[in-house]
Every structure is written in C-alpha cells, then in structure tokens.
Design goal:
Number of helices: 8
Structural class: alpha/beta
Number of domains: 1
Order of helices and strands: HEEEHEEHHHEEHEEEHH
Largest sheet: 8 strands, mixed
Strand content: 15-25%
Helix content: 25-40%
Number of strands: 10
Shape: globular
Length: 245
C-alpha cells in the first residue's frame, strides 16, 4: 500500500465513532508508541481483547513470541504451541466443549490456520499512516446495522461465481484478526468477535468486521454513486432515531 486510504466518507456514512484498529507486522515497535504489552505469554495469559479499552485510548498492543498473552494468541499469531497436542485437544474438547467429538477437535487443531509474524512483532492499535506498508488487516468495531452496510460494501465489486468475500470462520478472536485469511493480498473480510471466550472484553452487541488491506482500500472508495447514496441509509437512520451508531 503506497498511501493510506481515507476512510472518512465511509465512517460518516456508518456514523461510526469507534476508532478503526489495524494489525501490523512491523520491525520497529517504538514507531507505534504509546505501547502496552502483556507481561509474558502462556496458556493462561491475558486475552488480547482485554486491551480493547486501551485501543480506544490510543494505545497499541505490542505482542512478540515471548510476550503474547494467552496460549491461543501465541498459536494464532506466532505459531507457538504452549500445550502438548493431546492436552490442547482435551482442553478445547473436554474443558471448553467446542466440538461434538474428540476426533473432530483434533482435526481442527491439526488444520487451524496460523499467522507467522515476519518481523517478530505484532502491533494492534490505531491506524498509523506512516506505517501503512506494514499493515496486514483493519478491524471495524460495529453494531448490526453498521455490519450490514460493510457487508454490502464488501460485495460491491464481486462478480457472479467469484468466491464470497465475507466469511464467518470458527476460531479464536485473535485468529479472526489475521490468521483466518487464506490470502492477505486478496480483498476479503471476516466477521469476527464471535469467540464467546473473548467477548467479555467487548461491549455487548459489538462485533468485528476485519478486512484485508486490498478490501480496505476498496471500501474507502465507496461514495454517493454506490448504495451509500441511494436512500437506504437515510431510511435506516430515520428508523434508528437519527443515527446508525
């Protein structure tokens, strides 16, 4: 990405006040200060979504292979396995009840996607124009109405027969920020914030739509000639008392 896109028109259309959050894979974490970080990484470290309020305050979460918070995050973002395979399966299947059978849980564990940070630093926080070349995904924190608008936007350029640009994959909340994308160079979106284990870190009713950089660039070009200017939002805004937010 040569220059940071301008999301102002889209954000105004959404009545979205919550800051957009970027996930960066960058070599110099100090460029993202002020930083906050978990003390260590391990099976019972803090969930990264417990830093949601810090993002709203303008801070950036700094994760590394040595300090990544919970074990699920270490696995999703760095490929680090803090539990032995059989123990991990027993935890997800027996303790958390996430699959009907142990065999199904084992298959998921063996095939669940992971992201491998190229620079050893994953930084999650407010968008920074001067670090745009390191941006890997952008997350919109939205209510149901705003999610519907963005879903329409993601399909705006789709031709019949092409793969759906929006998916709702099963996985940890952190994996939905980057690991669930099969190709970060394609315009894709993931509806996230669906991991019930991390939702206590978010306000009720809030979901995430995380998009790759190519889709983010496209969304920022939506204007009055698109569905944004055809009366849908005006009627919906009236029905909601004047605002989608």
């Amino acid at each position: 990405m040569s220059a940071a896109p301008d999301p102002s028109v889209l954000l105004a259309a959404l009545d979205l006040q919550t800051p957009l959050i970027g996930l960066y894979d960058a070599p110099n974490p100090e460029a993202f200060a002020p930083l906050v970080a978990p003390a260590t990484g391990g099976a019972r470290g803090p969930c990264l979504f417990h830093f949601y309020r810090r993002w709203l305050e303008g801070q950036t979460l700094h994760l590394t292979p040595d300090a990544f918070g919970c074990g699920g995050c270490g696995r999703s973002l760095f490929g680090i396995q803090v539990r032995e395979r059989e123990d991990f399966i027993d935890f997800l299947w027996g303790d958390e009840g996430l699959r009907a059978t142990r065999e199904q849980m084992g298959t998921f564990v063996d095939h669940a996607p992971t992201y491998r940070a190229a620079h050893g630093h994953v930084l999650i926080g407010p968008l920074r124009e001067d670090q745009a070349r390191y941006l890997r995904s952008v997350t919109f924190w939205v209510n149901a109405d705003q999610l519907c608008v963005l879903q329409h936007g993601a399909y705006h350029w789709q031709s019949w027969g092409e793969p759906d640009p929006v998916t709702v994959p099963f996985g940890s909340g952190c994996s939905q920020l980057v690991a669930c994308f099969r190709d970060l160079d394609r315009p894709q979106a993931v509806i996230g914030g669906t991991d019930i284990a991390m939702r206590d870190g978010l306000p009720a009713g809030l979901l995430a739509l995380t998009v790759t950089v190519p889709l983010y660039e496209r969304l920022c070009t939506l204007g009055e000639a698109s569905f944004l200017g055809k009366g849908f939002l005006e009627r919906l805004r009236k029905a909601r008392g004047g605002s989608l937010g």
